[in-house]
């Protein structure tokens, strides 16, 4: 009876210390006896890409995106997403596991049909994903109430994460390759069309190369002009000692006139103010030829870009490399019973001490 009386007296005059004592006792009882063991599975992963060097044109800009730390952050975000939670539920039925009646009330999920939002909030305390920026490593820590479930959740996270990263990379690569293939098909059709137009023009004009024909006519005119100059020189020489009516002078005049007419005829073939002159035909041919060359260059560049894009697409695929396989727990490491009791006791004593000091100050002011 004396013990009970002293306890009541202590609680009456020092309620803060009594409350502290009760709270610490309950915490010790909970963490020592009631708290259910949790098993931890850990895994460490990095993302790697195949080292393939694209040949020729560098099209890395076509497949621009995040890399290195950025890819790991994207993977971390996916692993922490609601989509991943739904996959875990469909594959492993984590609701039933975390809502098992054998788990203590304060640790278990409220029910096996709890809303998705509440399940998401709950699972954040059971799955920890930490990104090590210095080492570029993603560290995954899963807590469950059986070693097999913890290991299964960690393994599922690895498998689904790798699948997601590859699907994302393949989708981007497929879109870029499809775009380049469409451009190649368009440029190929354009090249064939221009080539057909060039061949039709050659057949209509009856010339394989109008430019070469013009050059041939120009050479003929130059040769005729050289002959004309030679005949005029011979005529001037003969006129110095022969009369204009002499047979030699008449013959030279006749040849000179014939050459001049021939030169004029050849010039008219090359250039006239109307009709299809050779210079006009040659200009049209050169335009078509330049178009064909330009179309060929565009088509060649597009083919090179297509091959480089395919190589770059393969290089962009990500592979989840496992530095540490998901561990299979042999004993529980959570909750940290002694640590939790020590921390709770410290803060309880600290708050009780503050309350005691506050009451003392108030009592002193009253006095």
Could you explain how this protein is built, in words?
Among the domains are: 67 residues; 129 residues. A four-stranded antiparallel β-sheet has the order 2-3-1-4, with helices on one face. About 4% of the residues have low confidence. The protein is of the alpha+beta class and 367 residues long. It is rod-shaped.
Number of H- or I-type helical stretches: 11
Number of DSSP strand runs: 4
User: Portion of residues in helices?
Assistant: 55-70%
- Give the structural class: alpha+beta
Read across the widest sheet, the strand sequence of neighbours is: 2-3-1-4
Order of helices and strands: HHEHHHHEEHHHHEH
Q: What overall form do the CA principal axes indicate?
A: rod-shaped
The major β-sheet equals: 4 strands, antiparallel
Q: What's the Cα radius of gyration?
A: 47 Å
Average pLDDT over all residues: 76
Low-confidence segments = 53-67
Share of β-strand residues: 5-15%
Distance between the termini: 33 Å
Give the arrangement of secondary structure elements.
Elements: H1 2-13, H2 15-34, E1 39-48, H3 69-79, H4 82-92, H5 94-98, H6 116-123, E2 127-132, E3 137-144, H7 147-205, H8 210-239, H9 247-270, H10 278-316, E4 319-324, H11 337-366
């Amino acid at each position: 009876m004396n013990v009970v009386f002293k306890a009541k007296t202590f609680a009456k005059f020092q309620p803060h210390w009594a409350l502290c004592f009760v709270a610490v006792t309950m915490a010790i009882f909970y963490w020592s006896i009631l708290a259910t063991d949790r098993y931890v599975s850990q895994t460490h992963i990095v993302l790697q890409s195949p080292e393939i060097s694209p040949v020729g044109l560098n099209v890395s800009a076509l497949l621009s995106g995040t890399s290195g730390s950025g890819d790991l952050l994207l993977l971390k975000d996916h692993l922490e997403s609601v989509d991943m939670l739904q996959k875990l539920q469909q594959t492993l039925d984590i609701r039933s596991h975390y809502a098992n009646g054998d788990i203590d009330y304060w640790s278990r999920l409220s029910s096996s049909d709890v809303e998705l939002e509440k399940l998401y909030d709950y699972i954040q305390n059971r799955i920890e994903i930490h990104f090590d920026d210095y080492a570029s490593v993603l560290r995954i820590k899963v807590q469950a109430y059986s070693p097999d479930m913890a290991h299964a959740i960690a393994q599922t996270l690895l498998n689904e994460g790798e699948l997601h990263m590859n699907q994302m990379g393949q989708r981007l690569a497929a879109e870029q390759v499809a775009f380049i293939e469409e451009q190649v098909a368009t440029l190929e059709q354009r090249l064939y069309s221009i080539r057909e137009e060039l061949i039709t023009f050659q057949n209509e004009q009856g010339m394989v190369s109008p430019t070469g024909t013009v050059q041939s006519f120009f050479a003929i005119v130059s040769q005729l002009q050289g002959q004309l100059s030679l005949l005029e020189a011979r005529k001037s020489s003969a006129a110095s000692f022969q009369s204009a009516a002499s047979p030699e002078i008449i013959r030279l005049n006749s040849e000179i006139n014939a050459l001049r007419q021939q030169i004029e005829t050849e010039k008219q073939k090359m250039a006239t103010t109307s009709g299809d002159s050779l210079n006009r035909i040659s200009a049209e041919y050169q335009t078509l030829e330049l178009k064909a060359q330009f179309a060929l260059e565009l088509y060649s560049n597009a083919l090179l870009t297509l091959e480089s894009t395919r190589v770059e697409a393969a290089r962009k695929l990500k592979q989840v490399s496992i530095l540490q396989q998901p561990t299979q727990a042999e004993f529980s490491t959570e909750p940290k019973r002694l640590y939790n009791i020590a921390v709770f006791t410290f803060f309880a004593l600290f708050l009780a001490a503050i309350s005691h000091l506050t009451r003392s100050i108030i009592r002193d002011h009253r006095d």
